[in-house]
Amino acid sequence: MRIASCSTARTARASNRGELRRSQNWIGGTRPGNAVFVPPPPDHVADLLADLERFIHSPSPELPLLVRIALVHAQFETIHPFLDGNGRIGRLLIAALLENWGLLREPLMYLSGYLKQHQMEYYRQLSIIRTEGNWESWVSFFLEGVASAAAEAERSIIAIASLVAEDRRRLLAAPKAGPASYRLFEMLPMMPRFMVEHARQALDTTFPTASAAVKMLEELSIVAEVTGQKTNRNYSYAAYIELLTR
What we know:
Arc Repressor Mutant, subunit A; elongated; 2 domains; 246 residues; 61% helix; Fic-like fold; 3-stranded antiparallel β-sheet; mainly alpha
């Protein structure tokens, strides 16, 4: 969703990042008069965010938590409190509330992929809240997104666990593999891109030992060198990263 604004607001974006907007912005069109959506005036933003914060922290037992998250996200995007980055922050807010309200123990599910895949419908659903007051349709769309993202997260977790288990099996079966290579392999999910010096520090060992451990993993095609250089070489657990970024 492109945010159009006057030239002074465009100039202010870089210098006012993280600050509440002090000028009027709008979405689509060349001016507020022909815009697709015009957020509240800047002098209302602080009070509207305060209301939203009170809603987040107030007990609402009559509303399921996922429904509350749907309402919070839509309201945040409607307030549009910043000149830039509102979409990213709004999506992060979903993940933060899922974890903070105990629906996820870890941030393992993100709706960003679903919302990007259904971008036009996402914008349409937000629009009909504002034009028709149709919150039910938005909540239904949001919950469908949660179900889809949860299923995709489950598939990704299974794929990642299968990859790690298979690579571990191959490493344990390798006759020349030693303790340092085993330990380094178990660290890969926490540092899927690294240099030999990083491995040395993580293993708390000598450079030759760390280098041999990396070489073992490279020979098994678990990691691969990605720079093509003879010095300052970087290694990547590429298959793992690919699954994470799918």
